[in-house]
Amino acid sequence: MVDFQKRDTQRGDTESTSDSATHDHDHHAHDRETVGAAILTVSSSRTLDDDPSGEAIRDELESAGHEVVTRELVRDDGDRIQTVANHLIDRGDVDVLITTGGTGVTPDDVTVEAVGPLFDKHLPGFGELFRQESKAEIGSRVVATRATAGVADGVPVFVLPGSVDAVELGLEAIILPEIGHLVGLAQRAGHADH
C-alpha cells in the first residue's frame, strides 16, 4: 500500500532505515487515541428521540472509545445547516464533526452544499472510498450518493447519507480506522485548542 502522507525528501541522498522509521513515527506522533465528536443529523421528519442514524453514529464512536460531546438535529435548510455546522466546528471540545442526512439528489438534499463551503481542505478520497465500499451493497445506485469530507478550521468533517446502513459502513470501514490520525494531522497546524 502506498502511504501518500509520507514524503520522500531524498534528492539523490540515501536515508538510513532508522531515519525513515523516525520520519514515519513523527508522521503519527500527533495521532489522537480518543476524540471529541459532534453529530449533526439533517432531517425534516426526525427528532433526536427518533434518530436511528444519529444513534448509530453515537454507538459506533462510543464503542471505539471516543466521546460524543453533542448531538444536534436540524431541518433540511441550507442556511441553518451551515450555521449549526459552523458553530459545532468552532466549539473547543469538538475534534470531529459527523453529519448524517441530506446527501441525496432531491431538491431538499442540501447538506453537501451547506457544509462544503466551510472546508479549508477537501478530502475527496473519503467520498471515493465510501462509494466503492457502498457499491457492494447498493450496486449502481451508488451514483446518487454524495458523501463527502473535508477539514474546516482544523476539524475533520464527514458528511454521510441518512441511512443506518450507510453511517455504519462509513464509520466501520473508513472513519473509525482513520479518525485519530486525521484529527492529529488537522490539528498539527496550530489548532491545538480543538
Task: Characterise the protein shown here.
It contains 6 helices and 6 strands; from the N terminus they run αβαβαβαβαββα. It is α/β, with parallel strands linked by helices. The chain has helices at 17-28, 52-63, 78-90, 111-115, 124-138, 164-187; strands spanning 36-42, 67-74, 96-100, 121-122, 148-152, 155-160. Strands 2-1-3-6-5-4 form a 6-stranded mixed β-sheet, with helices on both faces. It starts with 16 loop residues before the first helix and ends in a 7-residue tail after the last helix. It comes from Halodesulfurarchaeum formicicum. This is Molybdenum cofactor biosynthesis protein MoaB.
Main traits of this protein?
6-stranded mixed sheet, alpha/beta, 17% strand, Molybdenum Cofactor Biosythetic Enzyme, Chain A, disordered N terminus, 6 helices, 194 residues
Layout: helices, strands, pairs:
Elements: H1 17-28, E1 36-42, H2 52-63, E2 67-74, H3 78-90, E3 96-100, H4 111-115, E4 121-122, H5 124-138, E5 148-152, E6 155-160, H6 164-187
- At the third CATH level, what is the topology name? Molybdenum Cofactor Biosythetic Enzyme, Chain A
DSSP summary: helix tally: 6
**Residues in helix, %:** 40-55%
Order of helices and strands: HEHEHEHEHEEH
Give the CATH class.
Answer: Alpha Beta
Tell me the radius of gyration. Answer: 18 Å
Give the termini distance in whole angstroms.
Answer: 31 Å
Judging from the principal axes of the Cα atoms, what is the shape? globular
Contiguous runs where pLDDT drops below 50 for at least 5 residues: 1-23
User: Which structural class do you get from the secondary structure elements?
Assistant: alpha/beta
Strand order of the largest sheet: 2-1-3-6-5-4
Relative strand content = 15-25%
DSSP, total strands: 6
Count of structural domains: 1
CATH superfamily: MoaB/Mog-like domain
| CATH architect. name | 3-Layer(aba) Sandwich
Mean pLDDT: 87
Largest β sheet strand count, sense and barrel closure: 6 strands, mixed
